[in-house]
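Lab notebook, design round three. We kept the backbone fixed and only want residue identities now. Task for the bench partner: fill in a sequence for the structure below.
Input structure tokens:
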């Protein structure tokens, strides 16, 4: 499978919406958003960021040819830290390196576009597969909220 990654553009919004809703519908326990609530919104949060090409938020897509098969968001926090959000790869594409390609694109975007020194993410403790994938990519658990583990990767 040949995969390319790039920042999504306004033309990608319909495909983004489809894959985002798919992620929420198929994995309701892995994301901090509700499928029905998101489906009913005329415009989701990241759709607005994609449409405006927000300098603080970048939604990255993984493509097989023209098909969007995975995504992850990169959003500036403070102290040169960037948050990785909405990581999702279509089921049929899992295990083919798509997630690794997205994490690498997120690392590059965080360092180059956002001048970040740390890439951070939140993951539910019960989502062991995701936690292990992130650890394999170099993330380490650095804290915990009431519901989620906080993981970070140094970019410097």
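Proposed sequence:
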């Amino acid at each position: 499978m040949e995969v390319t990654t790039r920042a999504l553009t306004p033309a990608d919004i319909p495909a983004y919406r489809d894959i985002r809703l798919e992620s929420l519908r198929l994995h309701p326990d892995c994301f901090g958003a509700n499928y029905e609530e998101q489906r009913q919104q005329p415009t989701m949060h990241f759709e607005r960021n994609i449409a405006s090409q927000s300098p603080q938020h970048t939604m990255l897509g993984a493509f097989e040819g023209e098909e969007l098969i995975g995504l992850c968001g990169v959003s500036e926090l403070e102290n040169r830290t960037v948050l990785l959000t909405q990581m999702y790869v279509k089921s049929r594409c899992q295990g083919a390196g798509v997630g690794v390609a997205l994490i690498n694109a997120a690392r590059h975007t965080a360092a180059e576009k956002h001048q970040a020194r740390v890439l951070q993410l939140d993951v539910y403790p019960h989502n062991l597969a995701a936690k292990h994938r992130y650890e394999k990519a170099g993330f380490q658990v650095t804290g915990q909220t009431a519901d989620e583990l906080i993981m970070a990767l140094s970019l410097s």
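Keep this in mind before ordering anything: The first helix runs from residue 13 to 26.
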